[in-house]
């Protein structure tokens, strides 16, 4: 009773029912929390939403370069304070209603306006809008001052200051445009297994079996001619990476994401599988908190940066799936890298000398916190921490490893005076360097503290970042972020250890899967042969 | 007997209250805040505070407990802090998967474990006995995670005889519709995908059933050994009864009481979910769901899930107690 026999039986039943179709089975790393766009930030939900919704702006496959999507073009006002988007005509939502400027306005108001009556009250707070755009309607920090429909296919956003990165930020996977009619009809059920989700994207919602799978079918009216290539997309929720890999090997799924780097060899050795790498768009770093005496001295922090053999660590834990170069931003932002930054040379002798100059010739005790969970930027945090600890002990720093449960870890690092040294990382939301620099170095820095126990404020850097995020002159922005890159490197408050390329895998008969550095991509181009 | 059942059911009320208090208290005692987990690496203090307020976490603990119990009394288990879905609906979706897997695992354990235990007892100190006791020892010692993955690699990846995970193949999606959520039942009702559904159960049931199987083998063996040394068994043999009759009619029936107790306890435990087996086989049951709820500090999910599991566990125990009267007429419930 071979499994193929079972499959053949099932397929013959399908064929006899006239239902034979090309179904793509995607091994998802979890179950979406919700399919309501703009109200969820976890990668699992966003990946699923990306198949149902389109955004105003999309990105060239495999890059973070913006390309037209639901908006065909966009331009800023001369003062940079307004952005106008011309919208695609003739696009319909999956429920048959028209996509137009009013639909965009409806969605934006829902994200931006806390008093919008169509918001789901309870649970998450549409926090991503506030985080990316300074706050909500009616709050002093909100970048957005007004949004209005110019005509049926034109919408304009007015800001208090220039927001040069707005088109790429609004193009991030968080902000899929949903059908206003569906949201009004479903109310609180919208985005749940019972209510589904309605967008304009390549696949439309069919069924969500709780804990098991999300079944999507081809959108026959998709505005991109000839796409999607698959007739149906089934996202199976398989949380365990070993189970995902086993299912891929067994052929019960066609493609999957987030496989631990250690499996690269096994995937390459399997004649049915191909590894697929996502371009790096993250950073895994070691934060050094100046609230504590030895770490308040920049020489000590730089000594630590010199003492850690980052190249060897990256080679050992990521092999060809990671790189280390001293820059806080990944290669996608190479334009913004300072030519003056070359990573601290691994040099324990020099590091020891620096420690001695700082008054610690015999080293010191250091509490070193490592994450209790695996993340793409640190897939095996404990082992990586131990490798760094071994390097630090070579220059006399006596490392005491600590960890806490994830929720507590995230929380306690922000409770003054915070952790001494800790591992954490970041995966970018959109293709602008401000998305890496601002959350980590703009004042106040909430997870690093000064000697008085107050959130750290690096005034010069903060002023630079403020200029960078409001300048609409690209040449000037490049100069600003190159300066920021150098300043961040010299301060050594967060030592970038790795920019990793998350490992994914597919069956050999699957083609057209180009992974986006931004963490999720539409599977509209993915095809599968050998039905 | 009905008065006894009613008394036991009434006794459930303080038990469930006690459990609700324990789970509520333990959850709050674990450090870590649901709002922090929900917002992850990017949450600002203001966002965290706003979310805490929205989730009602800034209210005094006694008030939170009263709200929880009030909801419980109305049959409302609240909403998941993460997905905003009704915990009741989530339980309804996940419970059938857990029940089906637990039943299958117990079927594996009973149909292999009990005969093996009998064989070991009847052929005491023989090669069969040694094999059965060694098997039982290995069975309880095997790490479930390892066993599950080995079974997957052998039967799903290499031999491709059985599916590697899930409850239903994607191919069967086109003609199978879940009705009750109990897929075996649903497939039988529709007369579709029966083999597909059953084949998905085999490996998880074998994995999950291994430990109860080993325990049942050992318990059956020792219970049978004790009964076989009783005078009435010797009498039966002396009367010239066939050995088959002595073992199956006289000995086994009396040896079954401890076996049934263990079956009940094991079944109750399996119904509480099997985190590792569910994880390996992507089985959408309540074990991994509650576990994830704990990791995410999703209080309503953990509270609702644990109270429900406790309720089921107590109910199973009641059924086991009632079954004693069927097995041993001397036992009466008043």
Architecture overview:
The complex is a heterodimer of chains A (531) and B (334). Chain A is built from 16 helices and 23 strands. Chain A has helices at 3-16, 43-52, 101-112, 127-132, 166-170, 180-186, 241-250, 264-269, 298-307, 310-317, 348-357, 381-393, 406-412, 434-441, 459-470, 474-491; strands spanning 23-28, 57-59, 66-68, 71-76, 82-87, 144-151, 154-159, 203-209, 213-218, 232-237, 255-259, 273-277, 282-288, 322-323, 365-369, 398-402, 421-427, 445-449, 455-456, 494-500, 503-507, 510-511, 527-528. Chain A has a seven-stranded mixed sheet with strand order 8-9-10-1-11-21-12, sandwiched between helices. Chain A has a six-stranded mixed sheet with strand order 14-20-13-17-15-16. Chain A has a four-stranded antiparallel sheet with strand order 4-5-7-6, with helices on one face. In chain A, α9 runs antiparallel to α11 and α14 (434-441) packs antiparallel against α15. Chain B has 334 residues and is mainly alpha-helical. The longest helix of chain B is centred in the first third of the chain and has 36 residues, at 87-122. The chains are: A alpha+beta (531), B mainly alpha (334). Chains A and B meet through α1, α4, β10, α7 and α13 of A and α2, α3, α5, α7 and α9 of B.
Explain the layout of strands and helices.
The complex is a heterodimer of chains A (531) and B (334).
Chain A: H1 3-16, E1 23-28, H2 43-52, E2 57-59, E3 66-68, E4 71-76, E5 82-87, H3 101-112, H4 127-132, E6 144-151, E7 154-159, H5 166-170, H6 180-186, E8 203-209, E9 213-218, E10 232-237, H7 241-250, E11 255-259, H8 264-269, E12 273-277, E13 282-288, H9 298-307, H10 310-317, E14 322-323, H11 348-357, E15 365-369, H12 381-393, E16 398-402, H13 406-412, E17 421-427, H14 434-441, E18 445-449, E19 455-456, H15 459-470, H16 474-491, E20 494-500, E21 503-507, E22 510-511, E23 527-528
Parallel strand pairs in A: 1-10, 1-11, 15-16, 15-17
Antiparallel strand pairs in A: 2-3, 4-5, 5-7, 6-7, 8-9, 9-10, 11-21, 12-21, 13-17, 13-20, 14-20, 18-19, 22-23
Chain B: H1 2-29, H2 34-39, H3 45-55, H4 61-73, H5 87-122, H6 127-141, H7 144-158, H8 183-190, H9 194-228, H10 231-238, H11 243-271, H12 275-280, H13 286-296, H14 299-327
Helix pairs in contact in B: 1-14, 5-6, 5-9, 5-11, 6-9, 7-9, 9-11, 10-11, 11-14, 13-14
